[in-house]
Amino acid sequence: MEMLVRRGFIWQSFEIYGGMAGFIDYAPLGNGLRRKIEDLWREFFVINERSVEIDTPTVGIEDVFIASGHAEGFTDVAIECSSCGRVFRADHYVKEKLNLEVDPTVEAVKNVVQEFNLKCECGGDFKEPEHINLMFETKIGPGRGKKGYLRPETAQGIFIAFKRLSDYFRNKLPFGVAQIGRAYRNEISPRQGVIRLREFNQAELEFFCHPGEKRHPEFDRYADDVVTLVDKFDKEHRVTLREAVEKGIIAHELLAYFVGKTRRFLLAAGIRDEKLRFRQHKDDERAHYAVDCWDAEVLLSYGWIEVVGIADRSDYDLSRHTQFSREDLSVFVPYDEPVKVKRRRVVPNIPKLGPAFRDRAKKIAEELEKLEDAGDEVVLTINGEEIKVPSEYYEIREVEEEVHGERVVPHVIEPSFGLDRITYAVLEHAFDTDTVDGEERRVLRLERRLAPVQVAVLPLLSRDEFVEEAETIAGELRENGIYTELDITGSIGRRYRRYDEIGTPFCITIDHQTFEDGTVTIRDRDSTSQVRVKKSELVRIIQELLNSGKSITEFGEVFRP
User: Which fold has domain 453-555?
Assistant: First the structure.
C-alpha cells in the first residue's frame, strides 16, 4: 500500500481534511489500470456476448427501490457504543474480536453480545443492535423535493429499461445488458482499505433468459475448465464445469457458463489461478433477490475476498417492477409450430353488464376475459375500487384455441464485478521482489496490455541531442496508441527500477550507439534482459510485444549491459 500511494496508484480521499474511511481517489496510474481492466471486461461480457452496454442515472427515485426490495431488505445489523458513540457492523466486529461467525440478525447479535459481554474498543457497553439501511438517501428537486437514493447497484437501471431493451433485441431471448459505473453503499464501519468502500465501481451484466432454458450455446467453450468450488455446505470440489452441472453442484448450465467466463476474465487480468475459488452462498446468506449465488473469491493479504458475485435472480426483479409499475415486463416467446389447446374461459354477459355497471362495464368485461376460471362471484379491482361481480354476469366455457406462443417473465443471471477489489487484487498478485545486480528489486508483473504505462523512453544522458531523439521516439509511440512516458531524471539504473515498480513492461534507451547506427535498446521488465533493434522497426516490434505476449528474444540477440 505504501508503494501504491507513493507511486500514484491510490490516494486517500479528502486527505488535506483528514480523510474519510470508505472513499479513495484513483491516482494517475491506478486510474489507468482500472480503465484497462474495464476495457478487458467489455471484451469478455459485451463484445463477445450477445449483449449491449447502457448507462443509467446514479440517482433513483424512491419508487424504484421500494419495488426492488432495497428500501426494506438492504440492511446490515449495527451496534452502537453508548459511551463513545462509535457504530460498528455487528457481524464484522464479532468476527474481529471473538473470531466467531454470527448470523446477521438482531436476535443473534444480541445473544452474542450478552453471552460474551462484548464491549466497545473504548470499554463502553453497546446499545441494542438495530438494522441500518445501507443506501444513501437524497432529495430530488428544490424545497421538500422527491425522495430518492443513490443507487446501491447498477442493475435496477437495466430492469427499469427492460421494455425498451427487449424491443431493441426484437424480443428474442436470451440477451444481456451491461453497465459499468458508480454505486454507493453507506457502509457502517468500512475497513481494509479499498476492499470495502462507500463509493465504488461496478461492472454488471444482466443476462435475460427463458425460465425453462437456462443454457448457453457456447457452454462447451468453458465446460472442460477445471475450477475450485466450495459449496454451501463448505465442501470443496476440484472439478470441470461440465461435471459440476452433471453432479448438481452448480444448479444449471448458464450459471456454470458465467463461472467459467468469469474465471477466464480474472486470469486474463492477472489473478493467479491457485489463489482463485468460487464459493456458493449459504441459504441464509443470499441477497433477498437471489435463488442461488456463487462468489469468485481471491486470496489476498486480507484473506479470501469476494470480487465477483454470480447470482440467479430468477424473475424477482421484473416481477416486482411489473407489480409496482403496473407495466407488463413479460416477453412473447413463439412456438416452432402452433398448438391447439382446450381451455376454460370466463365469458362476460355484455347485455347484463352494461345496465348494471354502466361506465365501468367495459373495464369489467376486459378483466373478466383475462380469467380462466371463476366461482359464484369474482372480486375485481377497477381504478383502485374493489367490485364484486356475481356469476349471473358471466359464464364459464371450454374453448379450443390455437396457441402460437407464450408470454414469460424472463429470469436473470447476473455476474456482478467489483472493479475496485479486482484492481487491488491484480496489483497484489502482480507485486513481486527479486534480486538484480545484488540489490532487491520491487516489480509489478502486470499483464502487458493492462500496464498503465506500457513503455518508458529513457535517454542515457540529459544532453539536448539525447532528449530530442527520445522526444521524437516517444511521440511516434504515442501516435500509434501506445501509453508512453519520457523520463530524463536520475541515473539510468534508478529509472529502470522506477518503471519496474509501476509495472511498465518495456523501457527503450537512447544511447551513443543510437546516433551511430540508428538502433535503440528494448529492456524487458521481467527478465531485465535487453535487445537492440532498429528505430524504424520499433513501433511494430513494441506493438507485437504488447499484443502477442512474445519474448524479446524473438527480435534480436539478448544482452545484459
Answer: Rossmann fold (3.40.50)
